[in-house]
Amino acid sequence: MRGKHNPQSTMLAFVNLDERVPPNHPLRTIKQVADDVLSRMSDDFDKGTTYRI
Known about the structure:
Layout lengths: L16 H4 L5 H22 L6
């Protein structure tokens, strides 16, 4: 390419969300409840999923 090379700055940032969300934040409780419910529903999801090769 001709001219100046101006690389685009990165648009992604990798952060550890556990470090960013305070320990007593309500999102932590919501995540725990959602994880518990989804883990109990895992077998139901497996039954409803079909794979084609």
